[in-house]
Amino acid sequence: MTIQFKPDETFREDFTYSNSDAAVLRFPFPFPEDVYMYSVNIEPHVPGGPTPAFDNPFDVDEHYVAECRERAKVLEQDPSRCKVLPHMMAAQWDTLELIMESFAASYPAHFTLTREGTNWTWENRPLGIRDSFVFGDASTLPLPPFEYITRQAQGDFTLQDQREDNLFVDGGMVTTQADWSMDFNVGMTFHQWHGPVPLAHEKGVFDRALKFLLRLQFGAPVRRLNWTMTVNPRLDTSPENYPQWGPDRTTLTADNIGAKLHLRVELQSLFRLPRSNAILFGIRCYLCSIEDLARVEVWGKRLHRVLRDLHPDIADYKGTTRYRDLAVAYLAAFDDGAALPSGT
Ligand code: HEM
C-alpha cells in the first residue's frame, strides 16, 4: 500500500494540519458507549479493529512526514524530550528491531530492512534515509538506537524496566504529549507517574492494570485507547510549553469551536521486548476537529453525550472545564437523542 503523505502540514503557528476524508474515517474513535469512565480497557493488539488505524503494530498515515519534522523541531529546541537511562541499552536495540521489522513488513513500499547477520541496512524512503550499521554497536549509527528509530515514527514512546514487581519509566521519546513531562517522570513507578489521575486509583484501575502488565508476554502485545481535547491541531502540548498553548483555550467561540477544538486520541500499545524484558509503550496520537468528527453521524451524537455527562473531575483533569459548555452546545445540534448501538 502506498500512502500519499502531506509533508508540508504544520502543527504550530499557522496550523495547516487537516485530515483527508479517508483520514477522518480511519480515526480511532474512542467511545463505544454514551458515557465515559476510566477502566482497564486493554485488548490484544492484533490486526483488525473498528478502523484501519488498528491494522498494524505501528500505524503510519498521511501525516507521517510532517509529524517526523515536527518532532525534529521540538528536539532541536529541547533535547531533554528524549531521555533514556544508561541501563536501558538492550531495550533501545529491542525497540529499533521491533519498529524496523514492523514498518518493513507493514509498508514495504516505503521501508526496507536488510539483515545479514548483525550487518543491517535500513531504508526509509519517505524521509530519504539509508543507513548501514552493525546491530548491537551504537557507534555505527548516527544517533543512539532508541532516538534514531523513534525520530522516524509517529507518536511518543516510553520504555518501562520491570523489577521489584513494578514498572519504572526509565526512558522515552516524548514530544507529542497531553500535558505530562518525560523529564519530570523519568525513573518513576507505575503508580507514581499516574499520581495526578483522578478517580482511577480508588477504583483499583491502576492496581489491576499493573498486575496485568507485569505478566505481558513477548509476541502478544496489547492496546488501549485514551483521549483528551486540544485547541488547534497542536502536537506538542507539554507542560514545558504551557505558556504557548494554555491561552489557546480562551480563543474559542461559538463560531470557531467546530474547526478549532480537536478530539485527541491516543492509540496506546504495549510490547514485551525480547532481550531486555522491558515493555515498550507506544502512544500514537490522532487529532480530528469536532466539526470533521460530527460528519460521521454516530460519532457526533456520541461525543455530544460523552462530553455533556462527563464526570466533572475528569473534565477538569483533561483541562476542558473552561470550554465544555460551548462544545456541548455546538455538538447538541448533531444529536437527535436517538438510541445508539454499543461500539464505534
Ligand atoms: C494517564 C503514562 C499505561 C491508564 C497517564 C499519564 C501518563 C501515563 C504520563 C498522565 C499522568 C499525568 O497527568 O501526569 C503511562 C505509561 C504507561 C501507561 C508510561 C505504560 C506502562 C497505562 C495503562 C492504563 C493507563 C495500561 C490502563 C488502565 C491511564 C489513565 C490515565 C493515564 C486512565 C488518565 C488519562 C486521561 O484522563 O487523560 N498515563 N500509562 N495507563 N493513564 Fe497511563
Automatic annotation (TrEMBL):
InterPro entries: HODM_asu-like
Record-linked Pfam families: HODM_asu-like
Recorded superkingdom: Bacteria
Protein name: DUF3445 domain-containing protein
Organism encoding this protein: Ancylobacter radicis
